[in-house]
Amino acid sequence: MPIGWPELTARCERAGIPLRGGFHPGEGDGVPAAGALPAGTLVLLGNAGPSMWRAFSRAREGAPDLALDDWTRTVVSALAAELGATAIFPFTGPPYWPFQRWAQRAEAVYPSPLGILIHPRFGLWHGYRAALVFAERLSLPPREDLPSPCASCVERPCLRACPVSAFSPSGYDVKACIGHLDADPAAECMTRGCQSRRACPVGQEDIYLEEQRRFHMRAFRNAAPPERGRE
Predict the structure, then answer these.
(1) Are residues 212 and 99 in the same domain?
(2) With CB atoms counted within 10 Å of each terminal CB, which end of the chain scores lower, N or C?
């Protein structure tokens, strides 16, 4: 018998990576097969608020150099083996799996003015770390189609908070952002997290811990080629 949604939710919680919704794939969704069988269900796993960070931090107590991607791969691969599913990740590639598109199929998330997906409850403080593909067509809970918070946001504080105006209706100026971080490594963006992201009023009760925000900002800066900030 296929695993039920409550049990699947509980297992993901115990593993430290919360369940983030799911859907039954169609031909145009680009979901890979579940082993030798066609995909019947895809479920997303990730973080919403600081809960996943706490699990990752506990794992790093005895291994301070443990990378988040390595921890994710280990935890989710073990979970997939237990459940008879196939694990896939957004950080393996190229080519990269369309996690942003899958997320919009799985739950009510929408593009924000910053280019990242916004959740009606968690705001900008969430992410997707892995997916499990099942051959079975699991029974999924009804999707809660709440509207995008950005649709009723008139002030758009996220577009005004960046100290170098890297975000605008025309897009994201990566060079300006990286240049600012390089010019002042002790800037608030690096020590407390992106000011534009923190300016969004949605999901303030689920904001990442300050340590978590610093970690992600360092990872973002380290992933960008140095020359991008010097052009």
Answers:
(1) no
(2) N
- Tell which of 73, 99, 134 closes a domain: 134
Which among 134, 167, 183 is the end of a domain? Answer: 134
* Buried b / exposed e along 207-221 (16+ C-beta atoms within 10 A): bbeeebbebbbeeeb
Q: Edge-to-edge strands of the sheet including 41-48?
A: 19-23, 41-48, 126-134, 86-88
Task: Specify whether 114 is located in the same domain as 186.
Answer: no
Q: Which helix (H) or strand (E) holds 171?
A: strand 171-172
If asked whether residues 93 and 207 sit together in one domain, one would say no
Cβ-based neighbour number of residue 35 at 10 Å? 13
Residue 33 CB neighbour total at 10 angstroms:
11
Q: What is the mean pLDDT of each run of 10 residues along the chain (231 residues)?
A: 93 95 95 95 95 94 93 97 96 92 97 95 96 97 93 94 91 90 87 95 96 92 57 28
> Count of CB atoms within 10 A of residue 122's CB?
20
- SS3 state of residue 3: coil
Boundaries of domain holding 160: 150-225
Report whether 131 contacts 87 (CB < 8 A).
yes
Residue 161 — φ and ψ, nearest 5°?
-85, -20
User: Is the peptide bond preceding residue 226 cis, with omega within 30 degrees of 0?
Assistant: no
Q: What are phi and psi of 4, to 5 degrees?
A: -80, 160
The predicted structure's pLDDT at residue 229: 31
